[in-house]
Amino acid sequence: MSLPGSNDQEKLEALASQTYKNQAIWFLNAFWDKLEGEAERIWDYQHKCDEYDLQKHEEGCALDELNAHRLLEAFNETMTVREMRDSLRESGAIKKEGRLKMVPLVHWLVFRYKQDFHKLVNASQGDNKAEIEAAQRLLDEVNQLFLEADAAAQAAAEAARAAKASEEAAIQREAEAKASEQEAVAREADAVTAQKELEAALAEVKAQEDAYNAKTEQLKKKSEEGGVVSRNKAKNELAQHLGEDPLPLRRAKI
Q1: DSSP reduced 3-state for 1
Q2: CA–CA distances in Å: residue 59 to residues 20, 63, 137, 234
Q3: Which tens digits make up the pLDDT trace of 214-240?
């Protein structure tokens, strides 16, 4: 399998037009003996390209400058897209004239791992089936890990939301219980105050009743003892006393 093009620069352009996945596979096949240990990270680059390509995703082949910078930032890379292009222009990998608006994955890989693009575009892809299958298996494993990690992250987020909701409900119940307790305390205080007022009123009624009865008994006794004049006077006072309006006392009793 070979790339179309009359020169290596055109072949690189042809490779750069393939999907992110195919660019990564071609690059790994070309430099497997040197970069086998970097395979997982290269697949990580490919997955990020799929994610940041907001229009084509895994069917895309190049990122715009904004998302290319996002790719570099995601992996804490300190170089810039401009530095990468300058290096590729100096090596002859891309044309010196004109301004490229898109960044293929393979451009980044050539620059990042400082590999010869001539060797890359002319690397044989048909006689290393075992390496291709190994690369594909690794890609499948990384894809599966990515899916599992994403599912775990979603489950953790859902659990966090549920825990927060439960905590908020518990706080609400605690606040309601506290409010009910305060209300009960207030009602108890009102009841104590009312009881004290009732007891005071009953004591006042009892005192008035005792005074009334004592005076009645006193006048009755005077009306039955002593001289005629004093008895008549006591009888008269008793009659007046008994004839007084007992309404306040009756009201108090009621």
Answers
A1: coil
A2: 7, 12, 20, 124
A3: 877 887 887 787 777 777 776 787 788
- Whole-model pTM above 0.85? no
Q: Using N-to-C axis directions, what is the helix angle for 228-243 and 129-224, rounded to 10°?
A: 150
- Helices 39-52 and 65-74: crossing angle, nearest 10°? 140
Rg of the chain (C-alpha set) = 51
3-class DSSP assignment, residue 78: coil
Residues whose CB falls within 8 Å of the CB of residue 106, separated by 6 or more in sequence, listed in order: 12, 15, 16, 23, 26, 27, 120
Burial 18-52 (b: 16+ CB within 10 A, else e): bbbbebbbbbbbbbbeebeebbeebbbbbbbbbeb
CB 235 within 8 A of CB 243: no
- Write out pLDDT tens, residues 136-171: 788 788 888 888 888 888 888 888 898 888 888 889
| 148 vs 154: CA distance, rounded Å | 10
How does strand 62-64 pair with strand 102-104?
A: antiparallel
Helix, strand, or coil here: 103?
strand
